[in-house]
Amino acid sequence: xxxxxxxxxxxxxxxxxxxxxxxxxxxxxxxxxxxxxxxxxxxxxxxxxxxxxxxxxxxxxxxxxxxxxxxxxxxxxxxxxxxxxxxxxxxxxxxxxxxxxxxxxxxxxxxxxxxxxxxxxxxxxxxxxxxxxxxxxxxxxxxxxxxxxxxxxxxxxxxxxxxxxxxxxxxxxxxxxxxxxxxxxxxxxxxxxxxxxxxxxxxxxxxxxxxxxxxxxxxxxxxxxxxxxxxxxxxxxxxxxxxxxxxxxxxxxxxxxxxxxxxxxxxxxxxxxxxxxxxxxxxxxxxxxxxxxxxxxxxxxxxxxxxxxxxxxxxxxxxxxxxxxxxxxxxxxxxxxxxxxxxxxxxxxxxxxxxxxxxxxxxxxxxxxxxxxxxxxxxxxxxxxxxxxxxxxxxxxxxxxxxxxxxxxxxxxxxxxxxxxxxxxxxxxxxxxxxxxxxxxxxxxxxxxxxxxxxxxxxxxxxxxxxxxxxxxxxxxxxxxxxxxxxxxxxxxxxxxxxxxxxxxxxxxxxxxxxxxxxx
Length: 520
Known about the structure:
alpha/beta, 5-stranded parallel beta sheet, 25 strands, single chain, FAD/NAD(P)-binding domain, 520 residues, 3 domains
């Protein structure tokens, strides 16, 4: 189907996407200017956030990009199966958490766990997800002037040739942005009905889970487990190591992680750490899991299992044609300019490894585009702010306290609750999102820490669990990462919109005038 120059509306795109995704429309959808031929300045294989944003930047710099995407829409897995549903579920988890904690108080009725449905939230998302997809297709074609082939598999023939939709396209540069998928752990019974990963959970769930086991201690595992438990569904997490100590969350501060884990325990989310699922039980569908724990073998009743066991890259469309260099986990190796070992071939997004986050995908795609267009650009994605959701927003940037003490001679911290004080001893940090908890369950308001190199007075790490502070971290991270950094005195001199969800500015004022900094 050729839609180039058709001025397709968002509603028209939504109709096409729904028809294609249901199988009603099986043909590729081409938005290609035939008059300009089939040669491009760059072809982006994969139309997720890396490919779409990269193509937009390349076009804005005067280049001609082509995006090839197997799904009938641009935007990738984030709005379709990953971060957008995860944020919907996290918002529901926060609402449900408060409803359970405050039931019978104020205006909150008695909590009815049968009224909170995992399936209902999944069905709500599925019914509306084509809206954002349609917007991105329309925006890419009408506003960004990006040419694309969607609803078509790409086949990379060599570093300058891509085939799709029965056509052959050539290019000066190739950007691989094909994403990743769940790494199957190889457990007996993992193919039984009732075993899901984050993608099949969205696509295939057709019943209300009664008892849930989540395998893995990753961000995905903890985030989805927290949502399931918030609905009132008994949930157990089984992790080989301590949860949130692998991948990106390995940079989580020890005290921040301690608060997060303690709060999960307080909500009756069972964590079996240093434990291994040896078998998923069931005949025709999941009936339970067999777990080897430090205390011995245990069988857990379950009718739903989620695999949160990490991800592996999607390389099928190009692996045979391109002798690329891969790391030990199979991700494509790139330098800080997103260049692979093959001249003119770049890679971006989840394909190049953790952190598997939208902001890293977007920036890696745009970094590749700038370099293709002759603008020297680098992206060091080992130093970015990070976050996860439980029933809290959990966000961090910079160094942990432990890392700071390994690097600097004198380190001080400003934290709430203060060192040595239990969370329930103070209602702080209390702000929008936690005010009701501050006056009812002060131990639930949150946790914050600011890490400072006392000699230079520079802020070197910030850590937060609570509500409403996440957006501030992207700006604070920029400030503390600059060559000149950000001192506690400069932080304390900023204006704050009180009551602010991050206490860093207010508390910095209390220490900014101290000549010899001490912790508080």
